[in-house]
Amino acid sequence: MHILVVHGPNLNLLGTRDPAVYGTTTLAEIDAELARRAAARGATVTCVQSNLEGEIIDAIQRARGTADAIVINPGGYTHTSVAIRDAIEAVALPAIEVHLSNIHAREPFRHTSITAARCVGQICGFGPQSYYLGLDAALTIVEGQPR
Ligand code: CA2
After folding, report:
1. pLDDT per residue over 92-144, tens digit each?
2. Residue 111 designated active-site
3. Domain assignment of residue 137, given as a range
4. Reported pTM
5. How is residue 11 annotated by DSSP?
């Protein structure tokens, strides 16, 4: 079982600034914990981060045939990107949208996710735990367990 984890723009800055909103955990630490949790369930993860919309779309397209599910934090593209939404739809793999912050408790422009409607569901507001819950959901879906 293999899961693609996609981190969108600016998430490479995690743990280096704005700790009040995004915490102190770095992206490398999140990726290491995702790999550890996946291994504990007999799975593997590939984690990619990009600040470029096209690169995110390429990564999603590559998941077809290489991954069983996708965990994605589209970052700011969550609220703007029809193209990432289309890629998630086109690849036809179960996708879980995750956010560190509770986007519904922030500025109104963050309340709408363009991408979430093509995902199985959305997890937000739990900091790095959002990713771990997202991984858990993805693995459970792929294992075919009832949700
Ligand atoms: O809460 C999330 O995970 C977001 O996807 C983060 C995005 C934001 O645009 C979304 O509305 C919600 C922003 C990521 C920026 O990450 C930074 C991390 C550290 C310092 C500065 C930015």
Report:
1. 999 999 999 999 999 999 999 999 999 999 999 999 999 999 999 999 999 99
2. no
3. 2-144
4. 0.97
5. G
Residue 54 Cα to ligand 1 middle (Å): 18
Location of structure tokens 């600040």? 51
Question: What pLDDT does residue 136 have?
Answer: 98
State in Å: Cα 6 to ligand 1 middle. 13
- What is the CB neighbour count within 10 angstroms for residue 45? 21
Distance 94 CA to ligand 1 centre (A): 23
* Residue minimizing CA distance to atom 19 of ligand 1: 14
16: buried, middle or exposed (CB in 10 Å: 19+, 13-18, 0-12)?
exposed
The total domain count for the chain is 1
The dihedrals phi and psi of 87, each to the nearest 5 degrees, come to -65, -40
Using the CB atoms, write b or e for 23-38: b if 16+ within 10 Å.
eebebeebbebbbebb
What CATH number corresponds to the domain at position 101? 3.40.50.9100
Active site annotation includes 132:
no
